[in-house]
Design brief:
By secondary structure, this protein is an all-alpha fold. It is built from 19 helices and no strands.
């Protein structure tokens, strides 16, 4: 018999597996800043270029729930390393692509690699840290998952401004290579998990759930496509969007039925029988819905309403990332020492308060007010993500961690996509309603409006415009003021709604019950 392998420092394992997750989460948002530059380089229309983002996210959500199945078949470490290689290869090919078709295909390849990195890291960290240090393990994991979308646009703006768009992909190569070497050297699977996985894999190889995998892939791909492209195609006014949603929902319903009846299901949905896993996963999904909505809404407000540049808007959001770096380790230490519901409830309240603070923004809002609101939300996100990620897996046995982390990651991703789609649509509709309501009252029959038009026209005339041009310019200027005020009211209403919606998850805290001592195996058969 071979001698047992000496234990590896847990922090070396943590650093090793965090590289891949951080790159994957950054790449989900970094491309958005560079889209105008890429569009000009490959000669694509505005509608066509969105496939670079859609293809990446669709590929990610298809792979995430299959992480457990792949880990049993090939081993967790092999799955992580293979996914990292696929991601690095996709990044290199994206940087050398010169047409939209090849670039979109390579982004799909990159997304397939990124899809397994996040849930696999979560499972590895869960195995590596002892029960009383699970909070610190999830604190490190949370830094990669939550900070990636926040840092991505700023990093992308800096690279595009100072270099070229290809480098947003090439920068992954040295970081990915270092992560590959470290995982190869320091990450090892324990014998207990390997034996359990081998036994399960032997049964699954005789009854591979190809039908379930196919239905899941079709359903998730179509639903994610609807979430990514629905707003652009005016939702159900488009027959394509309506058909994709209908087929996607039918496929997912068939998938759920299949997984509960298959001899060896590819995705273990029975894990949701655990109320702690279910409630923590659902709260995480809503958290990411609000987080992604704020990550979208606030930069748009700063750029379109306050006149910030893309880089300045990104820099204004960095204090939120900074406070999370400070608070994450503190929350990790507090996990298990104070009531879980208190910690998560505090996070819910802080995120909602941050949204309510953003709802008070006007066209005269200062940078200090923006930073204060984002700092409050940053504390809230830290109080949410770490305890929820740790609590979700608290009752899950080791050999089923990969299944649980895959489902947990999938719901976070879908929650973020749903939140982004809903709040982006609501912002547009609220803006239309607000502008129409204001325009009714802006008429020359009102003395104050006539006086305002006269002031603007006089000012334009003093700059050399003839009376007719000055009057036309005055109407255009007043129309611009109405547009700005209408959109400000739309942002106000949307931010308020985000805060109120998040408070509705508080009843789910009742089901967040984590034993002080390590829980025994969970029997879900």
């Amino acid at each position: 018999m071979s001698a047992p392998r000496p234990p590896v420092n847990k922090w070396l394992v943590t650093i090793s597996v965090t590289f891949g997750t951080l790159m994957g989460t950054i790449d989900a948002s970094i491309v958005n800043v560079a889209l105008p530059h890429i569009r000009g380089s490959v000669g694509a229309t505005l509608e066509e270029i969105t496939w670079l983002t859609t293809g990446f996210v669709v590929a990610m959500v298809i792979v995430m729930p299959l992480t457990g199945f792949l880990s049993r078949m090939f081993g967790q470490k092999r799955v992580y390393l293979t996914s990292l290689v696929v991601f690095i290869l996709g990044s290199a090919l994206c940087g050398t692509a010169h047409s939209l078709t090849t670039l979109a295909a390579f982004r799909v390849l990159q997304g397939m690699g990124a899809g397994a990195l996040q849930p696999t890291e979560q499972a590895i960290l869960r195995r590596t840290f002892p029960p009383h240090e699970q909070g610190m393990a999830m604190a490190v994991f949370g830094m990669a998952v939550v900070l990636g979308p926040a840092v991505g646009p700023t990093l992308g703006g800096f690279i595009v401004d100072h270099y070229s768009w290809e480098w947003i992909f090439f920068i992954n190569l040295p970081v990915g290579a270092l992560g590959f070497l470290m995982v190869t050297a320091f990450v090892h699977e324990d014998e207990e998990t390997l034996r359990a996985n081998h036994a399960q894999a032997a049964r699954e190889k005789k009854n591979v759930d190809w039908a379930g995998i196919a239905m899941m892939a079709i359903g998730l791909a179509l639903v994610q496509y609807v979430l990514e492209e629905g707003a652009r195609d005016d939702w159900f006014e488009s027959r394509t969007i309506s058909a994709c949603l209908a087929v996607g929902i039918i496929a997912l319903i068939a998938f759920v039925v299949r997984e509960f009846t298959a001899a060896a299901p590819a995705v273990d949905l029975r894990l949701f029988k655990d109320k702690t896993f279910l409630s923590a996963t659902l709260i995480s999904a809503v958290q990411f819905a609000i987080m992604m909505a704020n990550l979208f809404l606030l930069p748009v407000f700063m750029q379109e309403m306050l006149g910030y540049s893309a880089l300045d808007a990104g820099l204004a959001l960095l204090p939120r990332a900074a406070i999370m770096f400070v608070v994450n380790p503190i929350v990790g230490k507090l996990y298990g020492k104070i009531p879980l519901r208190l910690l998560v409830g505090n996070g819910v309240v802080c995120v909602s308060l941050g949204s309510f603070a953003m709802a008070t923004f006007t066209l005269q809002t200062s940078l200090a007010q923006i930073v204060l609101a984002t700092l409050i939300q940053g504390v809230g996100f830290s109080c949410l993500f770490i305890p929820l990620a740790a609590a979700a897996l608290s009752n899950i046995p080791k050999h089923r961690l990969a299944d649980a982390t895959g489902l947990n990651s999938l719901f976070r991703q879908l929650g973020g996509s749903i939140g982004l789609a809903i709040f982006a649509t609501l912002l547009t509709r609220y803006g239309t309603i607000a502008r129409a309501s204001l325009a009714v009252h802006v008429t020359e029959l009102r003395p104050e409006v006539a006086a305002r038009l006269g002031q603007i026209a006089t000012g334009l005339g003093a700059r050399g415009l003839d009376p007719t041009s000055a009057r036309t310019g005055a109407f255009q200027a007043l129309s611009g003021l109405v547009f700005g005020q209408g959109m400000t009211l739309a942002f106000e209403r949307t931010f308020y709604l985000a805060g109120i919606v998040f408070l509705t998850v508080l009843p789910l805290l009742y089901f967040l019950r984590v034993a002080r001592q390590p829980a025994g195996p969970l029997h879900l058969e």
